[in-house]
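Sequence only, no structure available. Ideas?
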Amino acid sequence: MSRIFPSITIGNRIINCCTLPYIIAEIGVNHEGSIEKAKELITLAREGGADAVKFQTYKAETLASQQSPAYWDLSKEPTASQYELFQKYDKFGEKEYELLAEYCRKVGIDFLSTPFDDRAVEFLFPLVSCFKAASADITNYPLLRKIAKKGKPVLLSTGASTLAEIESAITELEGVGCESLALLHCILNYPTPYENANLNMIQGLCKVFPNYLIGYSDHTVPDQTMLILTAAYLKGARIIEKHFTYDRSLPGNDHYHAMDVNGLKRLKENFLLLQKGEGITHKYPILSEMPARKNARRSIVLREKLNKGTILTEAMITPKRPACGISPIHWNDVIGRKVVRDLPEDHILCWEDLSR
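Reply:
I predicted one. Tokens follow.
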């Protein structure tokens, strides 16, 4: 029986283990409340080769209590209260997201936004091609059910979760109608030190959840080669989500661990190069190897001139290129046979040269 590989469709892209990753440039709140900055980021993401941009749709009062401590690096983002930080960046409403979704259609990139409350699920429904559920909401069953009932594909981040929690979230989503689901490995550190990235968890998720496409939502500080995200692709991630900014040097929030358009372009180039080099799974000599197979392999060659009737010994022969004569595979088969004609030194042995 042939294996059925998991896949998911987002917008016009069918994504599976054989495709390039679906790249989500997470603008999040890096627009800082400016529609023009948001549009600039959308344009840059499209220029860099992303498949989608993603925002975060929330209101501080429905997301966090006023006594909600920070869980990020305070040396990078000094706001010590979640509520206070979210208040800074929750200015967009339905009208703004409609404008941004329309702008995405205009420039040719998918519009996504993570909903953090029921109202956001409702007004984002006609605007997005799939729903993203944040890692922190993997146990927020009321929100997961609300999302699942909309019938669109769901991307579920799994940061800070156990396998049991992932399994339970899947049960909740599928129990109320979710038919298309992908799981994203994620580490909830802002930023994530390289030693905490645990990219092998991608392979672990592929093994434990073979029926679901696996992706990666990254919070590491990108290096110039985009190595971590490139390695995630090699580990099996086929959806890649990364924070996106127009200026990584900006202070606070998500700019410092985001990629910019140059990093995005490098990442896309890496993926294209790796896809070109991946090839097929089944091992066999390909057409371009045939000259090397013939000329770089060896035949059994005479070390010295031999007269007719001479019985071959190991001292009389050596393996040399090319492979147009008897292969060294048959080394033991030729030893002890007689030559049936006079043969010169450096002669490439053929079966016709030997007695049976």
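The CA atoms of residues 54 and 112 lie 4 Å apart.
Hope that gets you unstuck.
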